[in-house]
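TL;DR need structure tokens for one chain.
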Amino acid sequence: MPYIQVIKSYPPRRWGIFGFKESGKTAFLAAMNGPILLIDAEGRSARELSMLDTEVFALSSNPMDHHDPLRIYQILRQNGAGPAKTVAVDSLTSIFSPINAESMQNAKTAKNKASVWVDKAGFFRLIQDAVSGCGVDAAFIWHRENNMNAKGEKDSHPTISDPDLEKLKRSLNAIIGLYKHNNGSRSAKVVWSRNGPSGMAFKDEEGYWKGVPEKIDAAINGYQFNQAN
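>> reply
TL;DR here they are.
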């Protein structure tokens, strides 16, 4: 029989995860389903995860491969997720900030300025489709940073653009914000969900986000799953 029966279960975690510095983004990966196949564009995430007693596989031994959308696509298309249960990109910021800067520079001299940004959009799609195509859980991490707005007031912004975020949503079923509070505690908030409710926040009560992904699963999928059964 050439077909595989689909069993009722929670959908794979296809999550976008963002946060400010020290909000615990990399540590959150350690609480997700392991082993982790890591695209370590930060250059430090693999070591941090291994110190948290998480089984980690690196995409490549060549650090440059972790920054190259085409190489990421080629490696994942050839090898898939291997033994990993989660493929994680840590982070989209480190991959696309240099590409954005180069695109802006090239746009100054290009006759067809739109073509520069078309190339960049293609790179984004390569990573998105390659990671999602592995058929396991996926985590796309990006940063949120503080800055000053035109009025000189404190403001913050995500490090991926709104158009890129809309493209990414095609492959996501939830976006989760991670927050470190003034008292040192941390919480995770579901800021967007494809099928379930959003707006729920979960405290990191046990440390290192232990049990938090499971609570998020139950919150955004539980009602729909129970109704279907």
